[in-house]
Amino acid sequence: MPQNPPLAGEDLSDGTSVLIETAFAKVNLALHVRRRREDGYHAIESLFAFVDDGDVLRAERRDDGALTLKIDGPFAAGLDDGPSNLVLRAALELAHCVCPSTSLGNSEGGSQDPLPHWGASLYLTKNLPVASGIGGGSADAAAALRLLNRLWDCRLDDSALCVIAESLGSDIPACVISRTLRVEGRGEALQPLELAGLSSAPILLVNPGVPLGTAPVFKGWDQYDRGALDSSSLRAIITEGRNDLEPSARVLMPEIGAVLDVLAIQSGVELARMSGSGATCFALFETTAAAEAAQRAIARAYPDWWTMCGSLR
Ligand SMILES: C[C@](O)(CO)[C@H](O)COP(=O)(O)OP(=O)(O)OC[C@H]1O[C@@H](n2ccc(N)nc2=O)[C@H](O)[C@@H]1O
Ligand SMILES: Nc1ncnc2c1ncn2[C@@H]1O[C@H](COP(=O)(O)OP(=O)(O)OP(=O)(O)O)[C@@H](O)[C@H]1O
Questions:
Q1: Ligand 2: centre distance to CA 310 (Å)
Q2: Which residues of 213-224 are buried (b: 16+ CB within 10 A; e: fewer)?
Q3: Is 133 annotated as a binding residue?
Q4: I need a surface site. Which of 125, 157, 246, 280 has the fewest CB within 10 A?
């Protein structure tokens, strides 16, 4: 772990500077699962929104062509900083797309023939719980694509980054955009949405403190199509929207029921629901003061639960 990761915009002694991206936490305000596809993935209809807070990724150029990742922050422990990390996988995929003959190295001596242009030192501050339904790893990969697109001056637009993102994970194209979206397919069909009442909405996220993998939750879906998503208004999302993965996630992790019950009784709550494949649940509030009061009350009563308060972007 880095002792002193560089700060955003900090000028380093060699004259280079550090670039920074936030990996915004994702929430599925509604997640309708329509059918299991032949390729094993599920066709979804979902309203994605993003919180104005999350993990933080910093990068500085290095001229030796090496690509390294160091992780700190409250959820760094146990997270592999090797080539399986989605940040490094995204970096490699971007470099290969822009320059197919690129070989990237790491300081431990991975590459035979590193090209100086594609070097970077990456520092990830992991604030979001891992495997928790708020796209932490997906948001990190998307932030890496946005960040290295700038650092390496690749000049790819969002749609080109989304094509690269799609090969890395279903949630990653939406995380590249990190704005309110209606999402279909297995996660790659994106339609931007401006919903009245949603912009800057106060939100509280609560996780019961145990990781939950995505694949087993989809596997437990009962294969019953409960119908299309009406994303025409926030009211429709609140009253008609569902998270079809909630029953299966609750079987695997009954604590989700307790989190939802506690969120639902907080004063000023407009909507309480599970995000993604769980176990994180969220609540939208009428005011920031109500969201912060609920966070304080829940943190006092359930010290093992993780909470984060913010606004939708
Ligand atoms: C539940 C959501 O987070 C909602 O936004 C996403 O649908 C999941 O996105 P993700 O974590 O990026 O998923 P991936 O890493 O692509 O896939 C993990 C596993 O979840 C299952 N999976 C994922 C997405 C999807 N539309 N159908 C699926 O069945 C598959 O078993 C897959 O092997
Ligand atoms: N940078 C990363 N941060 C978090 N997890 C990562 C990262 N790189 C790889 N992973 C792996 O990805 C898996 C899923 O983690 P992630 O936090 O993205 O799940 P999630 O919150 O359920 O996401 P989603 O909402 O997209 O389903 C974990 O098993 C983890 O080991």
A1: 21
A2: ebeebbeebeee
A3: yes
A4: 157
